[in-house]
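Protein: ATP-binding cassette transporter
Species: Polytomella parva
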Amino acid sequence: DEKEKEKEKGRGGGGGGDKSSREGVAVHGLPLSSSTPLTPITTTTAAPITSTPTAAANLASYAAARRKRLRRRNRVRRGTLSTLLKLVLPDSLLLLVAFTAGAAAALGQALVPLLIGQIIDYASIDPDQAKFLHKTSQLLLVALIASLCAGVRGGLFTATFANLNVRLRKRLFSAMLSFEMAFFDATKPGKLTSRLAADTTTVADQISLNLNVLLRSLTQAAMVLAFMAMSSWRLTVITFILVPVVLTISQVYGARYAALSKRVQSRLAHANGIAAEALGNIATIKAYMSHGETEAAYGRSLERFRKLHIWQALVYGIYASLTNFLPILVGAAVLFYGGKLVLTKQMSAGALVSFMLYQQSLSAAFQSLGDVYGALASAVGAAEKVVQLMNRRPGIGSGGRFIPDCSPELLVSGGDEDEEKGSSHPHSSLVPTYHANSFAPNVLSTTSPHLPIPFDCSVQFDRVVFAYPSRPSVRVLNGLSFVVRPGETVALVGSSGGGKSSVLRLLQRLYLPQSGSIRIGGRDVGVYDPKWLRRQMAFVSQEPVLFARSIRRNIILGLEEEDNVGGGDRVAIQAQVHANRSGNTNANKNMNASKSMNMNTNTNTHANTYSYSNIKTHPYTPPTMREVEEAAKLANAHEFITAFPDGYETDCGDRGLGLSGGQRQRIAIARALVRRPGLLLLDEATSALDAESEALVQGALDHVMAGRTTVVVAHRLSTIRNASRIIIIHKGVVIEMGTHDELIAQGRAYAALVRRQMQLTGGVGGALG
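Structure follows.
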């Protein structure tokens, strides 16, 4: 007890038995009794006082952040409207005619109430039948002209914004095609299709409809106001008493409605994404019986969409109720005061009727403007997302403009050019030499062992570090370095996830490495014109992708006239080559020497109906039907294609599902062969074939790969064995390199993989790893 008393004294300030020191103590001015626990009271009482400046600072910070957000949102909206106006500019003449017709229609509609008032006055005050009929005829004529002008205005606006819809979709689709692969890794296809289909339609239709209404309402309001002021300025003042209230309500409504519209569009895009993902993988869903889970996820997304729509409808309902009541209130005031003016002979009955009609017309115009404001806010909300995608800059730049000189004269002479102009050959001794006539159309025949190599396709990876942007913390390549010499076939082997397929994606410049360099032909892949570079490559994946078009068009994918391969691109490429070659005296000398050396090859070239100019651009001209068939024969596809009733015009169906897996793979191989690539990239290209087809296609690939730079990702020993070199990649680095026999003799990782395969397959070539 004594110890407790001493503690109590200590909490009271250590004043011993002094009563004033225990009972007279006040915390922040509050008297305390001796029984009051001091520590809790001190803490709880002081907190609000000391936190007040912090709360004020937080409030100021919140207000500043909100102003910043509003400014940013306004900038975005101005930018969106500016972009839409630029897309509409090509139809400016149509819009000018539409505006003129709209003004004429508004003038005619404004004259109608005036003529009605005059007819009433003639009927009640001056019953002159002739004047009555004359004014009635004027009324009908004015109404007819106004209706025709309104129809012209509406029709032109509809046509104009149908064009806007097309331009929006083209621009957006073009922008999407330019985005880097990392964007598609992180974005669901359903969301993109929603932007491309639903949002563009919403934007174009809403803007078309509401700009039409906006033009009509503004011109109608302007004309009506002028006639109202001429009729009675007093009644005009009464009419505008509640206008500030209406404008305030419209502004608040528009802001709220726009925010809800953006959320509605976002929820709809999310639901579309779920549906697109499910329908695109319907076989997996059926196999795993996940109908219920998928349907429930789609239902939850739609439910959130529905709730937002209900809120949107509620906001509109409140706004509509207010905007419907306020005009009636104003009309009652005008009628009350106008009646007094008529009774005091300050206004005729017909003039009052005209004014009342004007007042109703003005109320309808303002109500339309309010509706238009909300609808345009909704359209801008959807347009912001579309324009944001359209204006998004690809994460990977468009690349350089360098195009090596691929003329057959230089290939024959093996002439070197400097780093800035023409093509350099750091491994020129390894580049095969070809005559000009080896570029003729018969290069695909089985009697022509070599296809043309358009430029030095050596490949060099130098300390490349890479991680996918969607998983930046997971390194796929960790300082990978290796070299592929021109005309060499290199097989990349290793366990799954080791980075083999990533090498092929980096070569196609679908992704950029975090560090290190990737070179083709001695130059960084970024300096080449990307279209030109990718036309020197052909890629066959382990999951072949076919489109819903004919087999022939799938084989010549990217080489049709519609792809500009025979027009603008070819002219641009020739111009760039000319720019690269201009001023290079040594190259010109080599060309002249080559021409003189190859005069006796001209006969063969002309026999094949190809001039030198044609030869230079041959890789960019659409393949002939004979070339398509030759490629299909090499890929062991011609026989089953011709067995179809429509042959090469047989439709492959959506994603090529009308064909078997092996058939799709062989068509994909034919697609690669018809391009005559200098660099062939194969990612398990024969994995979907049966043993017989694999043997035939592998033989064709071996035949075609001769003299061509080829990088093969493979697990099958039959594919790997004949490679010039085999590179073993493990966890993003090279751990072994050599020929099949050399690596077997070393007895390390590759030899272990081969032994494991032999044990699993009983000595028959199968999959490594």
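Remarks: The longest helix spans residues 291-343.
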